[in-house]
Amino acid sequence: LVIPETITAIKTKAFWGCNSLRTVIIPDNVSTLGSYCFRGCKNLEEIVIPESISEIPIDFARSCENLKRVVIPESVISIQNNAFSHCGLQEVNLPESVMTIGEFVFSECDNLNRIHFPSNLISLGEDICSNCDNLEEVSIPGSLSVIPHRGFYSCVSLKNLTIEEGVEKID
Questions:
Q1: Cα–Cα distance measured from residue 30 to residue 7, given in angstroms and rounded to the nearest whole number
Q2: What's the CA dihedral at 47, 98, 162, 113 to 10 degrees?
Q3: Cα-trace Rg, the chain
Q4: Distance separating alpha carbons of residues 40 and 47, to the nearest angstrom
Q5: What is the largest CA-CA distance in the chain?
Q6: Handedness of CA 121, 132, 114, 36 (dihedral sign)
Q7: CB atoms < 10 A from the CB of 75, how many?
Q8: 14 vs 101: CA distance, rounded Å
Q9: Measuring CA to CA, how many Å separate 104 from each of 2, 17, 171?
Q10: Splitting the chain (171 residues) into consecutive groups of 10 residues, what average pLDDT does each group show?
Q11: Quick one: how far is CA 15 from the chain centroid?
């Protein structure tokens, strides 16, 4: 999908269920993304988010079962609920700028193998990685005081969980 430079916002449900999409490169002029933008785009494999975005909205790319790569820029400080749940992501590279991550953001990403949360993270939602069958490696920064309820529920392959000093509670 080629989005013209003249576009400044992609509104709610704009491309929901567009199964022919393979790659989306969002131009720098886009400063607002609506909820459910690319939800259910079954064949979408890659999304590149520009530096002009500070928040990834609710259900942004939920149920994009073939999504293998998402480029999240240093400008993003918040990722909202279910943004990438039920996706085909294998690895997630979160920039250090991300401070809050909502509930169920990576839940049921069956191909997700590892995730390292950024060192500035202060809030992590419930069920963040629940039911990620192949998740083997997770690192939690000391900036996060609480590991949320059911954060890694039913992650049956989890082998390496690194929790830095500073985390006070596991719910």
A1: 6
A2: -10
A3: 15
A4: 13
A5: 47
A6: negative
A7: 15
A8: 23
A9: 29, 20, 15
A10: 94 97 97 97 97 98 97 98 97 95 98 96 97 97 96 97 96 90
A11: 18
User: Chain-centre distance of CA 136, in angstroms?
Assistant: 17
* Cβ-proximal residues to 143 (8 Å cutoff; 6+ apart), any chain: 119, 120, 121, 122, 166
Q: Which residue has the tokens 């293998």?
A: 68
Instruction: Give the amino acid at 61.
Output: A
Torsion from C-alpha of 118, 120, 123, 125, nearest 10 degrees:
-10
Other C-beta atoms closer than 10 Å to the C-beta of 168 total: 9
Question: What would the DSSP string read from start to end of 70-81?
Answer: EE--TT--EE-T
Q: In what order do the strands lie in the sheet with 78-79?
A: 55-56, 78-79, 100-101, 123-124
> Closest Cα to residue 115, out of 146, 89, 91?
91
Q: Do the bridges between strand 100-101 and strand 78-79 make them parallel or antiparallel, or are there none, so unpaired?
A: parallel
- In tens, the pLDDT along 55-103 reads 999 999 999 999 999 999 999 999 999 999 999 999 889 999 999 999 9
Whole-model pTM above 0.85?
yes
